[in-house]
Design a protein that fits this description.
The chain has 13 helices and 17 strands. By secondary structure, it is of the alpha+beta class.
Length: 423
């Protein structure tokens, strides 16, 4: 006597053998048979909650060897345990004419016991004097995995405080995280399904969004500034990084965007520009020579500095800081400049000599400090020429030496009176 199959598969087979085959049921109408056989998705027909027919796509999807293995079996033989109760409840409700979802996701079980997510769409069709269920099965493994990846990305984005949104290639939002929604004044569920234009004005779409997305499609990734609007119509700037959303086969199926509201940064930048403009206006008109430098490189020199050094702006910025300083003063200036840029506190007021283009020497009195320039901490030097004062001091010193030499060499008595007395 042949041995009966063992294990879970054997139990399923033996149970199926005991079930009555719906052999007396009406045949599938030709119209529906053509739909079933031509569909790229898995399609089955159920009559009184038993398989009547399944197309080749369904057999491949569920890894079933032949149609004979499923005819007469209930549909929940191919439903994973977590969704078994729900599947039975829906099927029984339809048999009783009660409401049940016509489309839903479920966890399916193949003939080999492996599981995968499917999307089911159920229709009732004529079946003789009765009705049967025509069910389409679509493997949504890639979609579910993509959604899980998006949820993971969303969790990361929530922690980073950045807004995340996913849009189809047609521009419809399929996912937004809470940071994105709150940035625009919405709840997440209010935005999903809407066109991305809900987040932009028509001007922003034309000026920012379309050119930006074109770069994404060409390069696969792009970063830049994009204008957005809040629910109340208030515009605000964002810094966005957008990448392509790909399926497992590498096909582009959408765009994933990360956005950060940069309103405060733009305000700070505008304030800095105003400050720099005021500084530049002052610097360009003052007689005080001004230089801003980093390390040994001049970053900015005003006209007064160029006049003092006898160079054009281009020449002054192209030369190392020390080249126009007298060799005897270079070490002093270099040491103090480096110390200040390293956070030390050397003397901030002192004098040194500049070399003119024709070999002449000009004395300057300089005041030094630190300043923010171009987003960096740089050295600042302001200088005024004191050549005439130094020459006058030198002439006075020489005069005093001549007088002292005369006074010490003469035999005559010499006295200096000041305020009626001998000085």
């Amino acid at each position: 006597m042949p041995k009966k199959p063992g294990g879970a598969d054997g139990k399923v087979k033996r149970a199926a053998e005991k079930r009555p085959r719906p052999s007396s049921a009406p045949r599938i109408p030709r119209y529906y048979r053509e739909i079933v056989e031509r569909s790229p998705h898995g399609v089955c027909v159920f009559y009184r909650n038993l398989f009547v027919h399944a197309n080749e796509a369904w057999l491949r999807l569920y890894r079933v060897g032949s149609l004979g293995e499923v005819v007469g079996r209930p549909p929940w033989d191919f439903v994973a345990t977590p969704d078994m109760k729900r599947a039975k409840a829906y099927a029984e409700a339809r048999e009783k004419g009660e409401p049940a979802p016509v489309a839903y996701d479920a966890l399916a079980r193949r003939a080999d016991g492996t599981t995968f997510p499917v999307h089911l769409t159920v229709s009732m069709i004529p079946w003789g004097k009765d009705t049967a269920k025509l069910v389409f099965f679509e493997d949504v493994t890639e979609r579910v995995e993509a959604e899980e990846r998006l949820r993971w990305l969303s969790r990361l984005a929530e922690q980073a405080g950045e807004g995340v949104a996913v849009a189809s290639l047609e521009g419809y939002l399929t996912f937004v995280n809470r940071a994105w929604a709150e940035m625009h004044g919405y709840e997440p569920e209010e935005l999903v399904g809407q066109h991305l234009s809900v987040s932009h004005s028509p001007e922003q779409i034309a000026r920012d969004v379309l050119p930006f997305n074109e770069q994404v499609l060409q390069k696969g990734r792009h970063t830049g500034e994009v204008g957005h609007i809040r629910r109340d119509g208030t515009p605000f700037p964002t810094e966005m990084t957008t990448t392509l959303q790909l399926d497992k086969a590498g096909k582009v199926i959408g765009l994933i965007g990360f956005a950060r509201d940069i309103t405060e940064r733009k305000r700070a930048e505008a304030a800095l520009r105003q400050s720099e403009e005021r500084f530049r206006t002052l610097a360009e008109t003052t007689r005080v020579a001004i230089m801003i430098y980093k390390g040994e490189k001049p970053l900015y020199v005003n006209p007064a500095w160029c006049a003092l050094a006898g160079r054009t702006i281009e020449e002054a910025r192209a030369r190392p800081l020390w080249e126009d300083i007298h060799p005897d003063d270079q070490e002093l200036v270099r040491d103090r400049s480096r110390a200040r840029q390293q956070g030390e506190s050397p003397p901030s007021h002192y004098e040194f000599r500049l070399l003119g283009q024709e070999g002449g020497v000009r004395w300057v009195e300089v005041s030094t400090g630190l300043v923010q320039f171009g987003g960096e901490t740089c050295g600042l030097a302001t200088a005024v020429e004191i050549t005439e004062r130094k020459l006058a001091e030198e002439e006075l010193r020489r005069s005093e030496e001549r007088f002292r030499a005369l006074a010490e060499s003469t035999s005559a008595a010499i006295a200096i009176y000041q305020d009626g007395g001998v000085a």
